[in-house]
Amino acid sequence: MLSNMGDGMLLPEMLMEIFKPLISASDSLPALLLIAFIIHVLWFCGLHGANIVMGVVGTFTLTNLQMNQAALAAGEALPAVFAGGFLDNYMNLGGSGATLGLAIAMAISRSAHLRSIGRISVVPGIFNINEPILFGAPIIMNPILGIPFILIPMLNVTIAYFATSMDFAGRVVALVPWTTPGPLAAFLSTNFHFGSLFLALGLLVLSTLLYLPFLNIYSKSLIAQEQVDKVAKAATA
């Protein structure tokens, strides 16, 4: 039978042995940085980076989650950092690009355009839905906002990886819906670990602060354009 090999090893067990090096490699900082980079470069180009990349990577995160759950049940140390919704907890705060921080900053922008987009994007962003800000700001093909959009998630996963490795934050042992607000998802998925909650909140604040300089540059160009449009409209009135 295909389900049982000659040496008594079940086919799923044999496949796990074959792919074990890949699974181990996936639970590393270089792998996380590469995943974050590819996802956000694809998004910047107008492609749904998360759907494209996580279709492949999801297999490894679920396997790592299973390893953590088995270790938890056995009373052993949890082995995997990059498991389950790790990226949703810390990288995707507000959606790809950690854009909840950007939405908050935009909501108080001097630019009328950015302010209106920011205000309608905050509530969806809390639940990790960020299409209004991706296409409304826009971030897609925007070289000014594209820089932090790509780099901030990479910084977030770096901080989260080391914080989890050093046990400041808990390791993921449960799946929660992707629409769960990031800090709450981090708290619930790590079995109510307060370090995870504080880490996610800290990364949200950091993301907001890091987006601000780029937003200011972009808003100045929009404000100048808005002034030109007002003058032109007054001249034709």
Structure description:
By secondary structure, this protein is an all-alpha fold. The protein is 70% helix and 0% strand. The chain contains ten helices and no strands. The chain has helices at 11-26, 29-44, 49-74, 86-90, 100-106, 112-126, 131-136, 143-165, 182-189, 194-236. Helix 2 (29-44) runs antiparallel to helix 8 (143-165). The radius of gyration is 21 Å and the shape is elongated.
Task: Using brief descriptors, characterize the structure shown.
237 residues, 0% strand, disordered N terminus, mainly alpha
Task: Note the beta-strand portion.
Answer: under 5%
- Percent of residues in helices: 55-70%
Low-confidence stretches: 1-6
Q: Look at the structure and give the mean pLDDT.
A: 89
Outline the biggest β-sheet: none
Over all CA atoms, what is the radius of gyration? 21 Å
Approximate shape: elongated
How far apart the termini lie comes to 83 Å
Number of helices: 10
The number of E-state strands comes to: 0
Q: In sequence order, what are the helices and strands, one letter per element?
A: HHHHHHHHHH
Domain count = 1
